[in-house]
Amino acid sequence: MRIKTFEIRVDPALREHDERTVNEFLSAVRVSRMHCGCLRSRNSWTLIIFYNEEASDAPALQAALVREFLPVTSDLTPQECERFEALRRWRDARAANMGHKPFVIASNRDLLNVARGDVSSPGDLLTIAGFGARKAELYGEEIVTVLDSVSESVLD
Fold first, then answer.
1. How confident is the model at residue 130, as a pLDDT?
2. Are 135 and 125 contacting, i.e. CB atoms less than 8 angstroms apart?
3. Taking the model in full, what pTM does it have?
4. Residue 9: its pLDDT value, please?
5. Cα(122)–Cα(144) distance, rounded to whole angstroms?
6. How many domains does the chain have?
7. What is the domain range of residue 117?
8. Residue 39: inside a domain, yes or no?
9. CA–CA separation, 88 vs 70, rounded Å?
10. 144 closest CA partner among 109, 120, 123
11. Which of 102, 92, 109, 8 lies closest to 49 in space, CA to CA?
């Protein structure tokens, strides 16, 4: 078993990069356990990961890792976790195509709110914290399509 530590800075401009680095690492190893704590003096979180170097292709494990990585207050059901991951992948790809940082489209917190919400139309996004008329207009159809694709894969 090996141990790796990460520092996740609170500043939104840096946090996205730090989170992506952690997620890339998590996708390449088999995690035994994780611990996190807040470093108030440095305005960041420290993540300690106990792992083995063999990769895991099991989607259930990857979803569990994302759930473990998120703060305790974001306790997600397995379906909400799948929705969040699908939304995050969509957002990252959309941002890359536009040449923007992912948080310009939606923050992780916004995506968590959508994953937890009952969104079946672009208009439903107006009831989700972090989404106004402009974001609903720009991305609403795509978000609903992503959520529908997750719902369909759960039914299969």
1. 81
2. yes
3. 0.54
4. 84
5. 7
6. 2
7. 78-155
8. yes
9. 13
10. 120
11. 8
Give the separation between CA 89 and CA 63, rounded to whole angstroms: 13
Q: To which H or E segment does residue 143 belong?
A: helix 133-155
How many angstroms separate the Cα of 1 from the Cα of each of 34, 51, 70?
13, 6, 23
Residues whose CB falls within 8 Å of the CB of residue 115, separated by 6 or more in sequence, listed in order: 76, 80, 81, 83, 84, 87
Angle 154-155-156 from CA coordinates, rounded to 5°: 95
Q: Would 31 be classed as within a structural domain? A: yes
Q: pLDDT at position 139, please?
A: 95
Residues (pLDDT < 50) of the chain are 56-74
Digit-coded pLDDT (tens) for 41-61: 777 888 888 888 765 444 444
pLDDT for the residue 17 = 85
Q: Domain check: are 109 and 149 in the same one?
A: yes
